[in-house]
Design brief:
This protein is mainly alpha-helical. It has 19 helices and six strands. The chain is elongated and about 100 Å long.
Length: 474
């Protein structure tokens, strides 16, 4: 039996929508996430209509009260969501009609679901961008705290996942703070472009009615009405930016996660995830698996996919609104939730991570990590770097084939490879000295790292203050 679709504005239709089409086109199961924004937008619109004399004050009052009741029903979980009513907007409209009758029919005056959904979405993106910034700042806070504990923890820095040069663990984790700081900046930049209200653009070409677009824009916390009505309903580039910023942040979390996975192997043994952030194997009793970072790494694929999804949805669309645009929502909601949750669990995993300082130190004690230092010592003696590189390469080769520790070579041993070595290797090479010698800006010397920690603490504080100030605005 075909269910009779409840058409709210079915004037020109003679038959009901096919059931399959109803199911196919319904979005309320996911776009109900917009309901609070939708209600706010409707309240602002009704107020403006009354001020402009387009609806009566009593109509506006009834609409306002009805929408407030609906908000309470949604909150209480008693709102009767109905997929047959297609989307969040029509569900609200139908409910309002049931509550207040005729006055409900005046709410859509001068408005289309096209400018309505575009406005809802920007409000959603505004909150989601701020939430992302907060989550990023909180993770930076945790990384900063752990970094501060590990200024004197030394591990090999890697290139190509081969031991390269020693670094402080604090320096290593502060690298992620830098990335996450830029990630937050991307959301801040985006917020600077979520400032134009689509509301009043109508279906695509505005309205013949004397709407006050400035009033609704202001009330909803926008700086101005969108300048072009077609652009207002058809564009989703800020949503793309949101997905892009989210995907980039997820990629950073994924790289951090990958390190946690590698570092917690028996082969590395640098860290151990706390029991609260790892799981066991259903088969192998000895296993402790890093599922949390693995899932963050895996979910990054989804976040990247969401970005590609929306770009692909948009690429062939003529102006202005097309129903394809309804496909923007699931990727956006999914990416927002994925980043939020990933930030939370990553912060927890890092906060509770056990660091094996000894294992790291032992790995960093590999004398080969000081080979670059040896070459740079020759450079200080006036040797061209390429020549120094060659000479030390031969020294290294010699040590490897004879199983010698680089640091044991006497001045005479070294002289076989280059006459300019100024002293015995034992006098020239030392892990601490090597770290301290890297004292350029951005380097791993103690003073540089502690200064970077201070700088990061100030930057986090500043970020949280700025966010709190913005959140106190409408
Ligand atoms: N659910 C729709 C969307 O998200 C709302 C706009 C519908 N507009 C329309 N002309 N069918 O895009």
């Amino acid at each position: 039996m075909t269910r009779q679709r409840k058409k709210l504005w079915g004037g020109r239709f003679q038959t009901a929508t096919h059931e399959a089409v109803e199911r196919f086109s319904a979005s309320v199961d996911f776009d109900r996430a917009l309901v609070h924004y939708d209600l706010r937008v409707s309240m602002a619109h009704a107020r403006m209509l009354a001020t402009q004399g387009l609806i009566g004050a009593d109509d506006q009052q009834q609409i306002q009260t009805g929408l407030e009741e609906i908000a309470a029903e949604v909150e209480a979980g008693t709102f009767p969501w109905d997929p047959a009513l297609e989307d969040v907007h029509t569900n609200v409209e139908s409910r309002l009609q049931a509550k207040i009758g005729e006055a409900a029919g005046r709410l859509q005056t001068g408005r289309s679901r096209n400018d309505q959904v575009a406005t809802d979405l920007l409000l959603y993106l505004r909150d989601a961008s701020r939430a992302s910034r907060r989550g990023l700042l909180e993770l930076r806070g945790v990384l900063h705290e752990r970094a501060a504990e590990h200024v004197d923890t030394v591990l090999p820095g890697y290139t190509h996942l081969q031991r390269a040069q020693p670094v402080r663990l604090a320096h290593h984790w502060l690298a992620y703070c830098e990335m996450l700081g830029r990630d937050g900046g991307r959301f801040t930049d985006l917020l600077g472009r979520l400032t134009q209200a689509p509301l009043g653009a109508g279906a695509l070409a505005g309205s013949t009615l004397p709407l006050d677009r400035h009033a609704t824009a202001r009330e909803l916390g926008f700086e101005a009405p969108a300048a072009n009505s077609l652009d207002a309903v058809a564009s989703r580039d800020t949503a793309v930016e949101f997905l892009s910023a989210t995907a980039i942040a997820m990629v950073h979390l994924s790289r951090l996660s990958e390190e946690l996975v590698i570092w917690s192997t028996a082969e590395f043994g640098f860290v151990e995830l706390s029991d609260a952030y790892s799981t066991g194997s259903s088969l192998m009793p000895q296993k402790k698996n890093p599922d949390v970072p693995e899932l963050v790494r895996g979910k990054t694929g989804r976040a990247i996919g969401n970005l590609v999804t929306l770009l692909t949805v948009l690429k062939g669309l003529p102006l202005a609104y097309n129903r394809d645009l309804q496909e923007d929502k699931q990727p956006i909601f999914d990416s927002a939730a994925t980043l939020r949750d990933s930030l939370e669990v990553t912060a927890g995993a890092i906060a509770t991570l056990r660091v094996d300082v000894e294992r790291m130190r032992t790995a960093a004690d590999d004398p080969m990590l000081l080979a670059t230092d040896l070459a740079e010592i020759l450079v200080r003696e006036g040797v061209p770097f390429r020549e120094a590189h060659q000479a030390v390469g031969r020294v290294v080769q010699n040590c490897l084939s004879k199983h010698l520790d680089l640091r044991q070579l006497s001045r005479e041993d070294l002289a076989v490879f280059h006459p300019s070595f100024p002293a015995a290797a034992s006098e020239l090479l030392d892990l601490e000295r090597s770290l301290e010698a890297r004292s350029l800006i951005g380097g791993t010397a103690r003073g540089r790292v502690t200064a970077a920690l201070d700088h990061e603490a100030a930057s986090i504080r500043q970020g949280l203050d700025a966010l709190a100030a913005e959140e106190s605005e409408p």
